[in-house]
Amino acid sequence: MKNCIVAQSGGPTAAINASLLGVIKAVLSSDQFDHIYGAINGIEGILNHNIMDLGSVFQQPYQQSLLKQTPSSYLGSCRFKLPDFHQSDDLYQAIFSFLKEKEIACFFYIGGNDSMDTVDKLSQYASENHINVQVIGIPKTIDNDLPGTDHTPGFGSAAKYIASTVKEIGCDSSVYDLKSVTIVEIMGRNAGWLTASSALARNESFFAPHLIYLPEVPFNINVFLKQVEQKVSLYSNIVVCVSEGIRDENQSYICESASSGLTDTFGHKCLSGTNKVLETLVRQHLGYKARGIELNVCQRCASHIASLTDLEEAENIGAQAVKFAAQGLTGKMLSFRRISEDPYQVQIEAIDIDLAANLEKTVPIEWITPDHCDVTPELIQYCKPLIQGEPVIFMKDGLAIHMIR
Amino acid sequence: MKNCIVAQSGGPTAAINASLLGVIKAVLSSDQFDHIYGAINGIEGILNHNIMDLGSVFQQPYQQSLLKQTPSSYLGSCRFKLPDFHQSDDLYQAIFSFLKEKEIACFFYIGGNDSMDTVDKLSQYASENHINVQVIGIPKTIDNDLPGTDHTPGFGSAAKYIASTVKEIGCDSSVYDLKSVTIVEIMGRNAGWLTASSALARNESFFAPHLIYLPEVPFNINVFLKQVEQKVSLYSNIVVCVSEGIRDENQSYICESASSGLTDTFGHKCLSGTNKVLETLVRQHLGYKARGIELNVCQRCASHIASLTDLEEAENIGAQAVKFAAQGLTGKMLSFRRISEDPYQVQIEAIDIDLAANLEKTVPIEWITPDHCDVTPELIQYCKPLIQGEPVIFMKDGLAIHMIR
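YS: structure for the whole thing
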């Protein structure tokens, strides 16, 4: 008997279940493994012996399609950091003893930066202790901040949701004959990829978002107000996209910034997001109608408008992990290499896990305009292929059908 | 020469351009009118002589399809209330003199409560002054709060967006093994229709939203916290949908309520929405992970997930307005009467405008459960047919194509 196990970790994406499906289908269509288990709530499922047999649930194409169109992590998730095993290896012993009991030869972990840390540690421990278990990382994160890969599965769908929503908000915000500023706050504490992708909303006759602010460069409130004023004088109704993590010259988050004027005279801070801070600044200093909008978790779970390219790639990278497993791979993360721009084409490779674990890839400064309020055409060209195509979605009573565990 | 003019007013919806298209197509396919004009920014376009020839722009099926899938008001909008003409009729003289100059025999106004007030006043003025111009109201509002009609065009698409999004948020919020409360704030100051429609997200194996609070009944913070506690004990991760306009027993908005604890010791109020107030209460009093989400303008502009039923009905009611115009109708608003539940079927009628103008239809109390934290099956049955079906959407580069004026 030779089995494998798969788990999901970190924040969900619209494509993380497509990667799970890729693993399941590749296992079911080969004779590499006898059983494919799923661990519930990431590595915690292995520690708690909480697993399920995935092969029996996902035999049929219909169930497989439903899994692919389901947002969130089907197997549940966790945020669990393993300790350094040189200091304490109790958990490691527990994990590998359970894997041995279940005759598991390979562990596929679908996750982001933190999960790759787990892959790194487990594979090292196995290697140092001559345990014959492979550990392979499958990337996912809407933030696109994993190094070592052209982009991450999940980013394309989030970018498509953002561009589509900003385009609709741009239409909506321009119906009245007045001066208005709509501020859209987009996820990203340190990496501005998601906010940058809002630029995809533009075309030759549509100019929203008019301003884009990323966390990679310092944010100056006075410069911001001048840039807003200038754009409003040109377009009347403007849309501004900002990363939640924009910071001033002193690295203080704008949403916590004293200079924002949103603390009262006694220094009490209000519980407001970046969008609300900027909304208030625009209203107070420029007198325009202003509205802050936070896109929130819809960025990672709006599977009804997922990118077909993203879903297909996510499934492929999951399937490829199983093929690499047959070659004895361990301690690696799968990655995309873009081998052609036109037509867009990627190749799936495997990189050393320590090139991705705990590291963060931010937007290159040269892809941000010198005035720090927009992105360059290179960035748009990079993002555009990732949002192409729409999946066919199975519906019931007007809503997408989801696969609930 | 006999012409007509059409305008849009109030907040946009995902279906308001479908009604515009209905008017345009019905005019183009009959010989009732020589020209169809559009007034830019509602009645202000007539006052400012700012109009366009719609017949020439929308001759082709492709442009027509694009109009139907474009969110916001293609012609722009306004919030303009005409004075009582018995006190001052300058504006009325200006309006009808311009209509006469352009040989306009009929004015179609697509809008909500306030716009129906305009229809009411203009038609009365025309009648009292023997002016041969018909004025016909075509309803729209996501809020579904217009009386005299089974429902309003625009509501179905907003309800579909809300139910779809709450379902996705429900999936997303349940991935971690902990106790959590996600609070979704939905539009509606006085009428809870939109918030109530979130109940459509549920099915036999999916229970979000677990609690629903509408503005039609008083909201009690202590009762709320007990109801949250009870649902969390059953489901661990719960989703709560609240109308922005929920109020306490004294008719104070919860988002401004002193008892919410979000004013500091000096009485300074924080600029937070209802969702943030409840998020903080849950965190402080119950200790659960809590997250507030405001769906914001996406509720009225997410045309990529519009309801096909809503779009078809909106187009039909626009077309029917032109047919009624041929019969000499004036001072009326078109409305839907539901003539069958199974199969769902509506009939378009015309009602006296004073049955709708300036009035508000709220959710019947008997459709709210006695514990004030949910809706009854009758409400779900009422909403369900309105979100059925998905339109085919023309896309370019991964995004819907919109028709920009």
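YS: worth flagging: Chain A touches chain B through 65 residues (CB under 8 Å).
IM: good catch. Also Residues 258-268 of chain A have pLDDT under 50 and may be disordered.
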